[in-house]
């Protein structure tokens, strides 16, 4: 049984064909252009395969309220051609098979839970620290969703005492994303994080913000594992700093087990998005 | 069909008999003494009724991990006679019927969801602001639980610029409970909150901390309604202040609807605990 999995990002869209065990049989990356042009390329890729179902992990914001008239549509996005585009509907109309959609970060979390570093736990939180910050929770096999999908990247955290940066979130100024995203690092220091080397102060401040957020997430969601992905986490020195600060802040108040297993890097690399999209179609 | 519901608090235990519609037919309050003595009184109250099931909302911490050897036991508590007491096991052995247990705040949340101010929504968060601060989430009829029950009262929040209070949480000093619980208010001002009248600064600072926490809870859990209960919330001026600050902090980033419906007082008063305990036994 073949299943399609699409990772729809702002700059590229990865189309894949795989199966329920997480095996990927074919994959192609196409640039994200205008919707109609892009959809034609997606259809073209899949024309060689007979799919049973299709899953999509998409950039957002997307409407994920199944009772809404705009379910599965891209909402407000700076990519104007995609604004209000009915991504789910277009795919359903063309393929005439079950199509499932969720946010890129929720799908990444599901991929790691099913096939990656979360495969041995019953709940995991996936946090992506890149241009922006987002997070998703999978618990007992299901993606957590309330009235809408979580917007965890925007939690408020206490300012670091050595940091006078005002924050760049257009909505909240100094929320987590406004203080600790890749864009915030670049704005604060005038260059990208990967060009800042091992400057202790930079990563000490970054770890302070991430640790405060992880402590909140842990107290509120009680996940068994916290996976930190995204470009900013390529800075290896961050992991030990974040673990140490989370331990200090939590002060043994809740059980987190071995910290190097509790807070960890993802495992699936390039195939995380498409594997998660395929996983969306199974047992949801 | 008769169902028993027990609200087990640190100073009193309320035993009730009711049914699945939320109707309470009999109720008795007994003081919380040593476990054996208290259990004898509980058994005595229920000896007149033939129960189908029994639910308990208990003070904590309790072990709620069903795979644990100590499931249903009271864990560390300052009430030394109850430390490591097997509350669930004792009740199961005596009554020989299905017995369900959860934390007092989770049970309060379930009561409001089923029979109170949350009856028209699909998810609600209940926050109790009393001597301590705790919170529980019910979503689609089920109490949310991760690896363990949430400990949301201990999230970190940014310090109010006019507040130099260091906080009283023995684990985290200036977490939400350390800054905004009834005990924190009493320590900061030298008298209990209900004796502080309408002093604008007092409630402005209190609302600052509660609003920051509610914003985090909302971004992470996306509940449809937030119910604020507990002794501190008897101060009527707090509700409008908290609503205003949550609106300001969120800055239209996520949809919360009418703020007076989004953040609201509980409805069930004295019978919240026993109604929630009875609700625990139904459809869980």
**Separation of termini of chain A?**
17 Å
Oligomer classification:
homodimer
Shape label of chain A: globular
Average pLDDT rating of chain A: 94
Structural class of chain A: alpha/beta
The helix content of chain A is 25-40%
Proportion in β-strands of chain A: 15-25%
Q: What is the makeup of the main sheet of chain A?
A: 5 strands, mixed
By CATH, the superfamily of the largest domain in chain A comes out as: ATPase, nucleotide binding domain
- The Rg value of chain A, from CA coordinates, equals 19 Å
| Strand order within the widest beta sheet of chain A | 3-2-1-4-5
Total beta-strand segments of chain A: 10
What name does CATH use for the topology of the largest domain in chain A? Nucleotidyltransferase, domain 5
| CATH structural architecture of the largest domain in chain A | 2-Layer Sandwich
Class of the largest domain in chain A in CATH? Alpha Beta
Number of helices of chain A: 9
Pattern of helices and strands of chain A: EEEHEHEHEEEHHHEHHEH
Low-confidence stretches of chain A: none
Number of domains of chain A: 2
- Most extensive protein-chain contact, per-chain counts: A-B, 36 and 35 residues
Describe the structure.
- The structure is a homodimer of 284-residue chains.
- Chain A is of the alpha/beta class and 284 residues long.
- Chain A has two domains: 3-104 and 270-279, ATPase, nucleotide binding domain (Nucleotidyltransferase, domain 5, 2-Layer Sandwich), CATH 3.30.420.40; 117-264, Nucleotidyltransferase, domain 5, CATH 3.30.420.
- Chain A is built from nine helices and ten strands.
- Chain A has a five-stranded mixed beta sheet with strand order 3-2-1-4-5, with helices on both faces.
- In chain A, a hairpin with a 3-residue loop joins strand 6 (123-129) and strand 7.
- In chain A, helix 3 packs across helix 9 and helix 6 packs across helix 7.
- The longest helix of chain A has 22 residues, at 200-221.
- Chain A is globular and about 55 Å long.
- The first copy, chain A, starts with a strand and ends with a helix.
- The model of chain A has no long low-confidence stretch (mean pLDDT 94).
- Chains A and B meet through helix 6 of A and helix 6 of B.
């Amino acid at each position: 049984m073949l299943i399609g999995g699409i990772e729809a990002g702002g700059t590229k869209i990865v189309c894949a064909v795989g199966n329920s065990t997480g095996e990927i049989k074919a994959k192609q990356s196409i640039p994200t252009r205008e919707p109609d042009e892009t959809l034609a390329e997606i259809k073209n890729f899949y024309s060689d395969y007979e799919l049973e179902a299709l899953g999509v992990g998409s950039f957002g914001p997307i409407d994920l309220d199944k009772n809404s008239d705009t379910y599965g549509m891209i909402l407000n996005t700076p990519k104007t051609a995609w604004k209000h585009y009915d991504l789910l509907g277009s795919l359903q109309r063309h393929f005439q098979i079950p199509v499932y959609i969720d946010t890129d970060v929720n799908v990444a979390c599901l991929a790691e839970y099913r096939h990656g570093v979360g495969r041995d736990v019953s709940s995991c939180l996936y946090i992506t620290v890149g241009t922006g910050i987002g997070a998703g929770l999978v618990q007992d096999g299901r993606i957590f969703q309330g009235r809408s999908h979580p917007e965890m990247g925007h939690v408020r955290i206490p300012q670091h005492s050595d940091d006078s940066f005002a924050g760049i979130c257009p909505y909240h100024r100094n929320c987590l994303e406004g203080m600790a995203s890749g864009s915030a690092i670049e704005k604060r220091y005038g260059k990208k994080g990967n060009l800042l080397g091992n400057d202790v102060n930079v990563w000490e401040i970054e770890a302070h913000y991430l640790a405060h957020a992880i402590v909140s997430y842990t107290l509120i969601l009680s996940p068994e594992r916290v996976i930190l992905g995204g470009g900013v986490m390529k800075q290896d020195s961050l992991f030990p700093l974040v673990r140490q600060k989370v331990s200090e802040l939590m002060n043994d108040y809740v059980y987190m087990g071995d910290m190097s297993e509790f807070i960890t890097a993802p495992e699936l690399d390039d195939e995380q998005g498409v594997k998660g999209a395929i996983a969306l179609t199974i047992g949801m």
